[in-house]
Amino acid sequence: MPKHTLDKVVVVGATSAIAREAARILARRGARLFLVARDRAKLEASASDLKVRGAAAVHIATADLASTSEHERWWPEALEALGEPDSILIAHGILGDAERARADAAHTSEILTTNFLSVAAMLAPVSTWFEQRRRGVIAVIGSVAGDRGRQSNYVYGASKGGLDIFLQGLRNRLFHAGVAVVTVKPGFVDTPMTAHLPKSPLFASPETVAEGIVKAMENGRDVVYLPFFWRYIMLAIKLLPETVFKRLKT
Fold first, then answer.
1. pLDDT per residue over 87-118, tens digit each?
2. Is 225 among the catalytic positions?
3. Distance between CA atoms of 133 and 130, rounded to whole angstroms?
4. What pTM, to 2 d.p., does this model score?
5. SS3 state of residue 4
6. Tally of CB atoms within 10 A around 92
């Protein structure tokens, strides 16, 4: 199968550590980029950095990515700026406070909306555009946490698990139009979002994960675990019977 081109890329959640590193890889290749995030100052700094690194052009748009409707404004701007994007990387999300989410309905809703509902809403017009174009790549960062619910982070896990099922259906739909839908499932990544967690050898760098994402987008992979060993870790976890798994302290 020929590789997908990544010459004109929309990056959503562009100021996150992983997305920033992926954009740098693309910039070094001379790609044209459209960056979307909440913080304009950080976006402008990223745009300057990417131009220095070789990006052919960098456009920016600010948006509250937890919203289920802001894409109605910035997606047309992306189309106008890039002409015809060949790919999109959706990388926004929050870990949230698992302890707080157990009793705080508003925080539970915030996690689910940011990580799942906002992405699903965004992909309605985006996926239809790519379907009509009949080629391209849609990549979305999920998480290994979505593979099985654990008491330590089941609200976050549910948001990523719902996203995983959504992307499975979208992949099935868009395959017939020649559009690749890539589900990215990182394990622990050393980013500001996980700064409060104790580090272990299982933590990967944003640069390593970003390299895996760009490669997966080029190859049109369906699902990619990053680093690769998480595929086997999660397989073992998923194979545990529920009667055993529910007794674990995880």
1. 999 999 999 999 999 999 999 999 999 999 99
2. no
3. 5
4. 0.94
5. coil
6. 24
